[in-house]
Structure formats: C-alpha cells, structure tokens
Amino acid sequence: MTPAAALTKEVRALLPTCAAILAALFSASGAPDFLRVRLVLLVLTVGSITLGGLAFGHEYTHRTLTLLLAQPIDRRRTCAAKFLALVPMVSLICLAAVLAAPGRPLQMFSGRHDETRAILILAPLCAICLAPALSMLCRSALAGVVFTVAIPGLLMLVGNIIATLWFGLALTGPVTAFISAFVWRSVLVVCAVGAIGSWVLFMRLEAIE
Q1: Dist. CA 9–CA 15, nearest whole Å
Q2: What is the crossing angle of helices 172-203 and 141-167, to 10°?
Q3: Strands (E), the chain
C-alpha cells in the first residue's frame, strides 16, 4: 500500500464522523445566544475526542487490525498516516466551532472567556494526543473516548480538593486560580505522555484476537 493509499484509507474512515460533527456544529449555530456557546463547546469536546478515539480505534471496531498489521509497510508510516488524517479534521472542527459561536470569534480567546479558551485548546489537544493512546490501551474506540473525557474532569476534581485543603473555603479567588493552573499544567503533561504513548503503543501493537 502506497503512502497516499494509506492516507486515503484513514481519511475515509474518519470522514463520516467528521461530517456529522460539522453538521452538528452548523445546527448548534442556530440556537439562541445563551445556549449556543454551551452547545458548540459540547459538540467540539465530544466530537473531536471521538475522532481521536476512532483514528486508531476503528481498527478494533471493524476488526481490521490484523489486516493492518499484516501489511508490508513500516509502522511509522502507518502511524503517521493516521495522524495526518486526524490533525486536519480536528483543526477543521475547532475552526467551525469558533465560527459557530456567537459574537466575534476572537472574543472567545479574551480574558473574560477563560473556560471557553481552555476547552478550545485542551479538547483538541486531548483528542490528538490522548484519545489514540487510550483507544489502543483499552483496545476499544468507545473506551478511549470515555476515559479521555473523564481524565480532565478527574484532574479538575483533584485540583478542587487540593485547593480547598490548602486555601480553605473562604478564598475563592486563589482557589479558582490554583485550579485553573493545576488543570492546565496537568492536562498538558498527560497529553505529552499520551502523545509519546500513542507512538510507542502502535510500534508494539499486536493483534491478539
């Protein structure tokens, strides 16, 4: 299989899901302003992470892993083809989410929209770096998506507990700042580990069915 054929295969596997996510974002853009941002961020988070899980997980879903690993192709090229299909689609979904949100797109990155900016950055990052690794580790696209969504929430819970124990319940400002910094740094570290893990896991991947 040529590199172009491998890339085409991966694009065809992800394209229906990507099209459905873009359609959902287009539908959410017609919602009232007070609801639109929440719908757009929900679709962005779930959609991009679903794509990340399917990038490697669709081989388990369709039971094509044995055929993939049996191909006389360097695994590095196969892994690169999967990421070359995944990254542009996730980027396209992020762009569509920014354009679908109410107001000027650049306002979503201002200081008054810290949570929105965090989701716009961290959700695609988890989709690209973390979801593929968890899909291979769990040998399931669905499990990879579920655990990828759960990890940032778990880190936020841990940050809340640590901040409350350290600062107490009265100091809301320092608590909020600590939680924000803790989640940002923790997710970045987890994503870095996931990116390395995705490569290592695929290089050592075996079909055990």
Answers
A1: 10
A2: 150
A3: none
* Token code pair at residue 77: 């090229």
Residue 185 to residue 176: CA distance in whole angstroms: 14
Could you tell me the two tokens for 58? 């669709």
Nearest C-alpha neighbor of 135 from the set 30, 188, 57: 57
**Is the pTM of the predicted complex or chain greater than 0.90?**
no
Ranges of H-type helices in the chain: 3-28, 33-61, 65-70, 75-100, 114-129, 131-138, 141-167, 172-203
Q: Is the pLDDT of residue 127 over 60?
A: yes
Task: Sort 188 into a burial class: Cβ within 10 Å, 0-12 / 13-18 / 19+.
Answer: middle
Quote the DSSP letter at residue 55: H
HSE (side-chain half, CA atoms, 13 Å) at 144: 33
Q: What span, in angstroms and rounded, lies between the C-alpha atoms of 190 and 196?
A: 10
pLDDT, tens digit (0-9, with 9 covering 90-100), for 146-202: 999 999 889 988 888 888 887 776 667 777 778 888 888 999 999 999 999 999 999
